[in-house]
Every structure is written in C-alpha cells, then in structure tokens.
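Thread amino acids onto this structure.
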C-alpha cells in the first residue's frame, strides 16, 4: 500500500496521487513522510515540496506555507499558494509579489537539497 498525497489550495488540486516519499518544509525544519508514518498535524513555512515516485525525484513545488495532516497512509497539504518549481525558476510568476516575498521565494529556489 502506497502513501497517498494530496496538495490543495483554494484555487486547485495541485497534486493527487501515490508517492514513495514526500519531503516538506516544516516550520522547525524539513521532514519526510513515508508509507505507514505516524499520524500528526503540523505547519509549513515557505519552501520546496519534493515528491518521489519509484525512488526518483518526480516533481517539486514551491509552497508559501500551510498545514499538513498525516493519517492512515494519507498526507494532505493545505496551502494558500502553490506552483510547480519549474514554472517559476524563470522568475515570471514572482514578478507580481512584493519585494520581501520575492526575496524569500528566490532564496527557497536557490538550491534543491534533496534532488
């Protein structure tokens, strides 16, 4: 049985599917969720979400914080804003943000730690 991951924002379901591992940007540091993880609820900071399928990095997303609930082999991430990292590395989407938010997002995108 695989871990089911859902990433939801008010605008869309950004991701829904089975994964081997997801690494999330917690407020106290990054953490990974595997199959059969203990149930818990925590908050997120601005950072990168890493999704692994078949033991390979499949997708990455930039989130601006949020809440994560893990229970019964299901991980649900609720966030206000999310986008695929590949769509903003060019900086197009960041142009609309304030200067402070731009700096934080660009810093989060500087280095992919788990790729």
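Threaded sequence (115 positions):
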């Amino acid at each position: 049985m695989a871990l089911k991951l859902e990433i939801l924002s008010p605008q869309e379901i950004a991701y829904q599917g089975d994964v081997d591992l997801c690494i999330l940007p917690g407020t106290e540091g990054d953490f990974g969720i595997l199959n059969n993880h203990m149930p818990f609820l925590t908050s997120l900071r601005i950072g990168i979400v890493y999704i692994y399928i078949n033991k390979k990095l499949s997708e990455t997303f930039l989130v601006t914080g949020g809440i994560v609930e893990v229970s019964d082999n299901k991980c649900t991430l609720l966030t206000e804003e999310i986008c695929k990292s590949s769509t903003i590395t060019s900086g197009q989407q960041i142009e609309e943000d304030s200067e402070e938010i731009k700096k934080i997002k660009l810093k989060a995108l500087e280095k992919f730690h788990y790729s």
